[in-house]
Amino acid sequence: MSDTCACQCNPSPVQQVATGDRAILPEGAKTIPIFVMGKRYEVPETLTIMKAMEFAGFQFLRGCGCRGGICGACPTVYRKEGDYKLYFGLACQTVVEPNMYLAQVPFYPANRARYDIETVEPVAETIHALYPELFRCVACNNCSKACPMGVEVLDYISALKQGDIAKAAEISFDCIQCGLCASRCMGELPQYHIAQLARRIYGKYLQPRAEHLAKRVQEIESGKYTAMLDNLTKMSKDELEKLYKEREREPEMTSLGTWMPKDTQYL
Ligand code: SF4
Ligand code: SF4
Ligand code: FES
Question: Hey, which residues does 162 pair with through a beta bridge?
Fold first, then answer.
């Protein structure tokens, strides 16, 4: 680790906290004990699990992607002191608590069916045939309780059992494919893979097309903007800056749908 932080302020190495994406100085920071796979570490109380583990000396080669709660690479299971309950969270989003016992689940070996989305029949029977284990669901709701995104997993599984692809696609929209639901399933379903297929089918075949988008694509393909873009690419930097500064702008605080530019040729 370098002794120089991101802002080049060259802090003392003993004070620097490695956080993975930036360095912070924990002046006066309180530390708390956490347990990672059974071993005790003292970490600053303000860090996320991911940064606390890096502070403790772990290096994430897998189980870390976006650091922003989007990629689903960092699911974590933990217990709190004196509490029988299992908790679930994303390591990059969940802040440490005193005496939490935690373990990473960076990958879960769930069954993933093979299919060609270009040729599948956009009907529920396709999903039922590719994932017959769907009907092993016993509605225990463990999956929903484990989901760090608050997705009602049981509800989308039930929707698919009833053949409602659109409903399943909508309910599962926030799924980040972390796999925690599958890790808790007594029916051994790969819920997130099933939901992904539902969303793919819905998006490709069932969702109503946006007419305004189709019209704009058709205009682009017919060459409506070609000459204008060619003209822009030939301009100098100064000409582009002038054009940008003099462009007609929507006034601030305009009510939605009440303003139109004078030049509407490219709308
Ligand atoms: S539905 Fe399953 S895979 Fe998707 S975010 Fe929730 S727990 Fe993770
Ligand atoms: S954990 Fe599995 S069996 Fe239980 S409700 Fe969810 S999908 Fe069904
Ligand atoms: S690292 Fe991507 S969700 Fe946590």
Answer: none
Pocket of ligand 1 (CB under 6 A): 146-147, 149, 151, 153, 175-181, 191-192
- For ligand 2, atom 4, the nearest C-alpha belongs to 140
Q: What is the 3-state secondary structure (H, E, C) of 179-231?
A: CHHHHCCCCCCCHHHHHHHHHHHHHHHHCCCCHHHHHHHHHHHCCCCHHHHHH
Cβ–ligand 3 distance for 49 under 6 Å, the answer: no
Position in ligand 2 atom list of the atom nearest CA 146? 1
pLDDT of residue 26: 59
Output the residue whose Cα is nearest ligand 1's atom 8.
178
pTM, to two decimals: 0.77
Instruction: Tell me the per-residue pLDDT of 148-184, one tens digit each, with 9 for 90 and over.
Output: 999 999 999 999 999 999 999 999 999 999 999 999 9
Whole-number Å distance, alpha carbon 79 to ligand 1 midpoint, is 19
- 66-97 pLDDT, tens digit per residue, is 999 999 999 999 999 999 999 999 999 999 99
- Helices marked H in 27-175: 49-55, 124-130, 142-146, 153-161, 165-171
